[in-house]
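Field: sequence (string)
Field: structure_tokens (string)

Example rows 1 and 2, in order.
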Amino acid sequence: MFKKLGAAALISLAVASQAQAGEVEAYSGITADAVSTGLALSAPGIGELNPLGWATVPLRIMMVQHAKSLPQEEGRPMMQSIEAGGWGAAANNLLVLAGASSIAAPIVGLAVGYAIWKKGEPEREFWAICTAQKKVHPQLKCDIDSGKAVVAQAAATPETGAN
């Protein structure tokens, strides 16, 4: 059990060490879920209810890798959803481990996941606006880290076609 737990945590940390924006948060959520699942499953009388079990760890890592291949306006919101789901699941797992009722644990887990998802709303709004503006200005470059959107200047002048 602890070998799987340790392997999942090490894989997530190794991948996170090469992370782009949003990745660390997504991998942290995956790791929190994996570690808390391992802790809960090591306690007597607690079983896994997810039919995919540990298979969700590599699936979510693959989702993050896919999100990295997308434009930021699509990839970063996807990473936020992975982060929120992982931390929500971790909250549920820790409450189950602490002996919370089978009704309270998932409700609190959903609330934690929703709170983390809600925290990223301003960034998702930024990317939605950026996507809409790119339809009007295809050369638009958006940078969430500086909060700026910049239109790249054309190399040629409209009249002559020369520099």
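Row 2 begins here:
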Amino acid sequence: MTFNVNVSTGGRRSARPGARPTLRALLLTILAGTIASGCSGCSRKLQEKGLHQHALNMCDALTHESPSSCRAEVERRFPECGRPFLDMETNFEAYAECLGFVLPKADSTPALFLGECGAPFILAKVSISLATTARTDGSEPRELGGRTQYVSKTPLLSKPDLTHLRLEEHGGVRFVLLEVSEEAAQRLEATTRANIGESLLIAVNGFEIAPEITSAISFGPGLFLAAPDAEIQELCRDP
């Protein structure tokens, strides 16, 4: 939350069918908000770097017209597609399609409500931890993205910080909206603002990714995550 790190709400996105078991695709769309909302305090070079990495990460979250060579195709097309998007001459949908991604067609059907719960009835296991290139007190080394990083043993956000969960379906694609406490949101925003260039280790139900922090995370209304095969029974327990 997507995995280019911002977890405020964004547009429709679909995860690659069958790419990972239930809920694992959640992680891969947490980060989509930053590029769409911009990074007013970032240099052009940093914006381009973040957008480029986000484009490659999209291969793990969206369907591409050339699945077996997605990253190579995105790398080839990025110079042509990225500049107009950064200059706000095109929208996210046009940008993604320029890169070769196949997006779900717009659907005017109202969102289908599938269930919700509040703490302490949330089952989804979520944690976000800071990962740095230099060792810090209270950290442990991990191999992330092919390099050693030092992950804080105390997460910035974890399951106790979740306050509400809602499962909806939009145009045939399921989404989870996670809300967190104000204290947790402020803590995550302050830490990411002070650690641009480092990484976050984001885990949902045992699956992990470690995207680079390119701007401070602002939760806005919450995390809006694609979860194509999620069921409310695995996200919430009965009161």
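free_text_note (row 2): The two ends are 27 Å apart (CA to CA).
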